Protein 1
Amino acid sequence: MGKMKYLGILSLVSSVIGFVFSMNTQSMAYMGPNGEMTMNWFWLGAVLSYFFLIIALLFLIVLKRNNSKLTIVDLLFTSLSIILIIITGIWTTFIIIAWQSGF
Amino acid sequence: MKGKFNNMFFAFTTFLIVLLIFSNVENVSAAESITKVNNAEITDEEFQEFKSKGYYGEDVTLEMLNQPYERKSLLLLEEKSQEITINSLDNYTPKAGDILITNDTSYGGITGHTGIVTSSGKILHYPNPNVGIKHETLAQWNARYDKTNVWRVSSSIIANKAASWAYLNYYATNSDAEYQINTDLYSKDPTYCSKLVWQAYYYGAGSSVIDAPLTKIVRPYDLPAYFTSYPNLIVQEFIMR
């Protein structure tokens, strides 16, 4: 099992972390003292969400460039990763726009 | 063979975890949430208190607010549908239950914003988490949102009940509700602007008046379209520019 085999798993793990941050970005805004709303925590959640999304994408790009033969498991990992990357990107962007403009 | 089995098991477990995360986005079930929401019935004491504070107009009575909603009356309303467009703020007098929808928000109005007129003629809305829930005059609203479409429900009984529910559940109480967009339509905290208006009609006037969106996220621009069972219930549109 070469190093490349782990890239699919790493991409999936990164995308899951990004997805979790994306889903919790709004809740994080209320992590200030005594549960007060603070945009610093909100932005931290949003930035971490995008950060892990980019990391997941980079792993996928490296995996693709190496042209290694992918097993069914690798394909499952990469497919799930791609789905999560798309959802994370769309949801985080939507939340940022909605929080800035009202919804 | 064993390695392949391990891989498959790991993949399956990961898939299950992802599935669980997805299913838990709506973390409060509808049944649980409904019990959290107060009944829209207004007591005589509350009515007198709010009326003395000027929240209700002179023409609003307790009986009107607590009158049971009947499907039959809605069917009759459909026959009276009409559409009026007025292009000036001067010609618009806020009426309880009016739904204000604006595209005058940042990012080109991509998400839009909405509020509901309460019995006092003020607009109750949740602009964003920084400012919290606001109960403002039309002039204050208009200073911020220049372009606004106003949708009016033709039944003043239904409109008054929605307006009262919104005021009692999002200003008299619960005014510190957290701002959060999620797929839980039925809880009052957290909430967001269009969910506040949708709930006012759903809980205040009756669940058969307004339908739930399939996406479980209420979009400001789509609010009039959620009156799908009685599309002609919203009959008047005013446009402020």
Protein 2
Amino acid sequence: MKAYLALTQNELRLAFRDKQVLFFNYAFPLIFFFLLSAMLHAERGGSVVAAIVTNVLVIGILGNGFFGAGIRAVQEREQNILRRFKVAPISPLPILGASLTTGLLLFVPAILLTIGLARLLYGMPIPDRPVSLLIFLAIGALAFRSIGLIIAAVSNSTAESNVLVQLLYMPMMFLSGAAIPAAMLPRWTQTVSQFMPAAYLVSGMQGILTQHESLFANWKSAGALVVTLCLAIFVAMRLFRWEKDEKLQGSAKLWVAGVMVPFLALGVYQFRTNEQTVKNRTLWRQMQRGDAFLIRNARIFVGDGRVLENGSVLVRKGRIEGVYEGDNAQLSTLKVDIVEASGKTVMPGLIDVHVHLGAPGGMFAEAKDFATEKIAERGLAQYLYSGVTTVKSTGDTLDGSLALRQRVAIGDLLGAELFVSGPLFTTEGGHGTEYFSWLEGPAKAAAVEQFVRTPANPDQAREQVRQLKTAGVDAIKAVLESGRTGMLFARMDLAMFRAVVQEANGQHLPASVHTGNARDVEDAVDAGAASVEHGSFSDPIPDAVFARMAKTGIAYDPTLSVLEAIRDLSAGRPDLLRRSLVQQAVSQKLLKGTAELLKDPKTANADRAAGLDGAIRIAQDNLRRAWKTGVPLVTGSDAGNMLVFHGPTVHRELQLWVEAGIPPAVALQAATLNAARLLRADARIGVVAAGHDANLLVVDGDPTRDISATERISTVVLKGERVRRVDLFDASKNPLQ
Amino acid sequence: MVGIGAGVDQPRALVAQSGEEFLRPRDAGEVSVLGFDPGRETKRLKDRIGVCLQATNLPERITVREALRLFASLYSKTVDADALLERLMLVDKRDAPYGKLSGGQKQRLALALALINDPQMLFLDEPSAGLDPQARLEIHSLMQELRREQRTVLLTTHYIEEAEKLCDRVAIVDEGRIVAMGTPEEIRSRTLGQARVEVRCERPLGAADPPRWADADPAQISDDRMTIVVGTRKPARTLVDLVRWIDQLGVELADVHLRHPSLEDVFIELTGKSLRE
């Protein structure tokens, strides 16, 4: 112990006399700090600063371990310094221990320096888990120091240790996320990096710094580092050599591989679970969302009815930090990126409150392309591409939707934010059950369990609502319709229906009710639904019902687009396929398959098309009167149905409303603030206001005059990230997909 | 060449030819140093001995005093570092970094480190190698002091006069084996070595062979026939015989040497090698 302390004290003292040591421990990381800060615009603040701190500290740890221990220890042997200790009553342990401790102690000022600078210059918040952070850093520093000692133990000369160090240092530096964020690297390197200790150091630190994770949340990384540390000390003890003349057998170098075993195991585990890749994507997303920029000289459609003819929107750390009217000289002094938006309109990201992510909105020629998960992922990406930053799924598989919502929420998947209703409440033989009629046995039971709820009595209905609440849904969807000639459905028992809606209200879950005619609408309003979906395509909804809706704030979602789509399908009209935004957002496969379907004479049905023209007129009339009566309107596309493509259809819905006589500004508010209110999320999304999520759509022109301007998308911002729209669908360009 | 101070009977297992390999595993038998078995009680033995190996180094930036303090921390018993610095004439240099010391100073520091634990036994491996005569003399006087302090010093050296001057007992090691051991006098006398008379003449001796003198080896004449060497047990008599014979040949003397056997002669005789090999 006495020897260990004296050796540590001595080594520390000598280190501080050595300019090279000081340079590599303090100056070198600082160079990286300023370099990365300049490259990644640290002055704009946000989680990019934490990422820079992580990179700098990891680079420090790598240098401290590999060069500080790996090469230095060999030099001490080569210069016959260790030889002097050989004849003293001392074992290798205090020497190794002193090297480890010295490395750690040398590193501590670098930690404080880096975090202090990040705080001073770029306003990085003080880490909220300082103990976890310090322990994790200490474990990391010690583990890499010990790996350095192993390198020293197996190298026969400084030259040899240099080669070994470079072999380990370079890949760890450039492939594991230390110098370049892992998520930016190609997929194969991400796979390779799963086997590198440095990768876990990076992701663990960033998790603690930016995701407020504890040490415990990173126990796998920390554990692997500790095991490496112990193994390395053991091996370094066994292979310790006092003199340069003691050569080591080549086979002894295999011990190094032994030290890597924990990371081999962890890598295999990660390879199977993908946890690390997901974490890297999440961290990358976080970094992208931490950017700061100012959209200036824009027309601002606030969402609540107000329009600022000339203003600026400041986005920072994922939020709207401020909305400024007119010219504001102070803004020019901000250290943020500038987005020039003269002649453009900034509006809240659009919201689609009625989508079915399990279906693509068209036809694939090959059955294998109907893979629910892929379709849903693609759908969410299409929404984002189209400036729709939030969607509500109104009828999809429960587990699949919840998992997808989580992936989007953490940033693993880049797409529109998802609100989930989960299974539809309907009745045996009711709408929603027809999709499974062709299934049998356990497959049918499983599908039904995921997709519908058909309670046997009101009590069970309530119980099922509560279960869904527990499962984590954001809303309840119920079906109340008896169909029409040629497609009759069993209608839900009213007592049961009311039980569903009331329990949903009791659980603070907005209940959206699918209706078929005026009678259904009236019953939904009676029951206290949060929104009426579709309304009626077959008969006028009485003004009195609309008046009650207006009074109680029940939203009306006319879903005109799905009606138009069915009409076009029956008429064999390909117009919807030719829309520019559809061509951009929808995959060629789907477009081609759907075009073929339209050409199929079996699809065409002139009588039905004619009938649907009438239905459209009824629906338009209902919408117009709803607006005139003061009903809160919301936009839903019912995407997933044939020709109702995820994303672009919201724009079509707005156009159909304007064609029906709704003023553009009213339609736009329906697609933003009103929709956000229905989602009970208007405190966070739906308006361009300080403190709200920075979900923004910037379009060329003025959509309050020309609604088609919404399709001329200039920029889409999701939670502060300016989305690289062209990369959304291209897996090679977007490693995150 | 191993010089041995007082008291060690069997240093064979402790040293190798060059003295570089300290505490090498034994081939066979029992070894006891200061009552410890070097193979089993290594650490306890190391705590009690002082070692000064050839070609060891210290970090460039460590100061003399820091080095002493550091090594002092490794032993259970230590002497006063300042006194040690005084004794090794390093007081002025105590705050100098190791890298700035001269060769002699480095060597004195190495000796100081070997003495820091007040060892009963010292192993000094060529302590004066590569030093200038002045520095070597300083080391010699230190070793004489250590000898007076009743410490056992095992000295490895290539300087024959060092062994003759400093050691009570000497062992000659050739290729890992002791070929002779004893006091310098014992070793000298135990060999075939004897006095040699060497005479150089002013001109060649001509073709005549010298006679065989009593108590002397056959005389050897150099190729130029100007030098004649005779080994003898009775140098005075042989010298007279030799000079008389040369005088009879009418040749004048240029130079006369009478040489007694040295350890060097013994070494060459025993190993067939010159010492500096």
